[in-house]
Amino acid sequence: MADMGNKFDKLKGDAKEGLGKATGDDRLRAEGKTESTAAGAKDAVQNAGDKVKDAAAGIKDGLSKDR
């Protein structure tokens, strides 16, 4: 499941990026884009880890039923 901190960081980054675009502040826009991208990547890694754990649990359950 996605971490709420990652979602907050993504929203914060999106807001900074939008504010940077609106004000013409390229540094703020780039900073916001970087924060948003990093939060999205962390979320994707956590989701992938959760899927691996779920798959491993399913395999374990399947093996224990065969016995």
TrEMBL record:
Instruction: Identify the stretch(es) annotated as Disordered.
Output: 1-67
> What Gene3D superfamilies does the entry give?
YjbJ (1.10.1470.10)
Q: Which domain of life is it from?
A: Bacteria
Domain CsbD-like, chain residue ranges per copy:
6-54
Compositional bias segments (type: Basic and acidic residues): 1-34
Q: Which family does it belong to?
A: Belongs to the UPF0337 (CsbD) family.
What is the name listed in the Swiss-Prot or TrEMBL entry for this protein? Uncharacterized protein YjbJ (UPF0337 family)
Q: Native species of this protein?
A: Micrococcus endophyticus
